[in-house]
């Protein structure tokens, strides 16, 4: 199973019975990077990739991307105390004109939330989609070589949302890895 197939086969739904430990994180509408920084006093972003590539079929439908058109896709792992806590995938369609926003293309290891939650015209569509992922599925996630897949040994939940900047859309998918709770118990 590839990382892309995880997202393609996910059963994204607007309402699920999300277990209590996950609910608080999944329904949080503010900046996750700021919340992680505030909660753990630590945050780093490991860049997996940022490049032009075909969007997944579900992303094409979500954002209205023509089938033949590539999108700018950024994949990162948000880490706290060097532990992976969130996998994030951002999809920016070419036709939106958002790519003229140079900071979006050059984030590298900066958190996306730093830009989205400070941009004057940015707002998040409040209609989240949620999905459950087994730990077997998570083994296909791309990880930087410094992070072992064995650190991800439990199921997790994810969410998708759409941000609108200057009336143009981009999508963000976030998988909340179980390590977030073990680290939270230490705070």
From TrEMBL:
GO terms for molecular function: chorismate lyase activity. Removes the pyruvyl group from chorismate, with concomitant aromatization of the ring, to provide 4-hydroxybenzoate (4HB) for the ubiquinone pathway. Gene3D superfamilies: Chorismate lyase-like. Its main location: cytoplasm. This is Probable chorismate pyruvate-lyase. Its EC number is 4.1.3.40. It is an enzyme of class 4 (lyase). The lineage of its organism: Bacteria, Pseudomonadati, Pseudomonadota, Gammaproteobacteria, Oceanospirillales. It is found in: Cytoplasm. Substrate binds at residues 74, 112, 174. Belongs to the UbiC family. Keywords: Cytoplasm, Lyase, Pyruvate, Ubiquinone biosynthesis. HAMAP family: UbiC (MF_01632). It catalyses: chorismate = 4-hydroxybenzoate + pyruvate. The keyword Nuclease does not apply. Pathway: Cofactor biosynthesis; ubiquinone biosynthesis.
């Amino acid at each position: 199973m590839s990382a892309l197939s995880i997202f393609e086969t996910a059963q994204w739904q607007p309402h699920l019975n999300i277990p209590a430990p996950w609910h608080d994180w999944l329904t949080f509408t503010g900046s996750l990077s700021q919340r992680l920084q505030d909660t753990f006093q630590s945050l780093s972003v490991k860049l997996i990739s940022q490049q032009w590539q075909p969007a997944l079929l579900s992303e094409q439908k979500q954002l209205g991307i023509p089938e033949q058109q590539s999108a700018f896709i950024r994949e990162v792992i948000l880490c706290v105390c060097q532990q992976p806590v969130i996998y994030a995938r951002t999809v920016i369609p070419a036709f939106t004109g958002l790519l003229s926003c140079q900071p979006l293309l050059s984030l590298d290891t900066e958190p996306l939330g730093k830009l989205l939650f400070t941009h004057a015209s940015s707002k998040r569509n409040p209609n989240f989609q949620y999905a459950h992922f087994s730990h077997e599925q998570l083994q296909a996630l791309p990880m930087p070589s410094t992070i072992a897949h064995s650190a991800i040994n439990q199921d997790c939940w994810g969410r998708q949302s759409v941000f609108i900047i200057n009336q143009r859309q981009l999508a963000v998918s976030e998988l909340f890895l179980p390590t977030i709770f073990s680290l939270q118990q230490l705070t």
